[in-house]
Amino acid sequence: MTASARAVVLLSGGLDSATCLLVARSEGFEVHALSFDYGQRHRVELERAAALARRYGAADHRILRLDLPARSGSALTDPGAAIPKNALGREAIPATYVPARNTLFLAHALAWAEPLGARDIFLGANALDYSGYPDCRPEFLEAFERTANLATKAGVEGSSPFRIRAPLLRLTKKEIVLLARKLGLDFALTISCYDPGPGGAPCGACDSCLLRARGFREAGLADP
User: Fold this and answer.
1) How far is Cα 33 from Cα 120, in angstroms, rounded to an integer?
2) Which residues 6+ apart lie within 8 Å of 162 measured at CB?
3) Which residue range is the domain that position 205 belongs to?
4) Does pLDDT of 47 surpass 90?
5) Does the pLDDT value for residue 60 go beyond 60?
6) What's the CA gap between 202 and 216, in Å, rounded?
7) Would the pLDDT of 103 be above 90?
């Protein structure tokens, strides 16, 4: 890989995506960060994403607005729906699932990556300590990678195929926390809560908060 190789990193402002940004940077990529305002109730994550992009030297950071066709399809986008609390693992696919979210995110990342000359797209998908979202499974990511190389000029010409990179896919949350610390992540810049308070304070009871707390606890570290 040349020193000028570029990568697009999907950056939500959470622990996992921030760790992916640092993984990409540690591999020598020039990082181009991409975040989405899709009407999520926890929009404070976009402020954290911007802070992370600045702190860790992203060459560019874009926040795209996505108007989902059905806001009522997820508790994360429907203000009238309740965010499940203290319910981790009770449902195979919880109410916080957003239909086609990663498909849409990756499609936009691909549309930016091709003209940018980037062939690596990073995202913080995890298939171990996660909420059961189907678009975080390795089968989906492998299928999207095949699609990317079938549906683009760069992929068809075959000079340099696209790679969908999910370096955290098979790590436990404890292992993610330890990797993030090794890479120098300022944990205080990240937020993982689905239902934060007005000032961004985490609720401490949603799936994402519970997974994060377990990761720090098992890693033997305090979460700032």
Assistant:
1) 12
2) 110, 113, 119, 120, 121, 145, 148, 149, 152, 154, 155
3) 6-219
4) yes
5) yes
6) 15
7) yes
* Of residues 173 and 90, more confidently modeled: 173
Does the pLDDT at position 180 exceed 60? yes
Using CA atoms, how far apart are residues 41 and 156, in angstroms rounded to an integer? 39
Query: How far is 42 from 163, CA to CA, in rounded Å?
Result: 29
pTM as predicted: 0.95
Domain contains 33: yes
Strands (E), the chain: 6-10, 30-37, 60-65, 120-122, 163-165
DSSP notation for 140-201: HHHHHHHHHHHSSHHHHHTSS--EEE-TTTT--HHHHHHHHHHHT--GGG----SS--TT--
Whether the pLDDT of residue 51 is over 90: the answer is yes
Give the integer Cα–Cα distance in Å for 60 and 30.
9
* CATH of residue 66: 3.40.50.620
Rounded CA separation 65/21 (Å): 21
- Average pLDDT in the chain: 94
Domain membership of residue 203 (yes or no) is yes
Please list the residues that pair with 34 across neighbouring strands: 10, 62
Confirm whether 1 is domain-assigned: no
**Closest Cα partner for 10 from 131, 142, 120?**
120
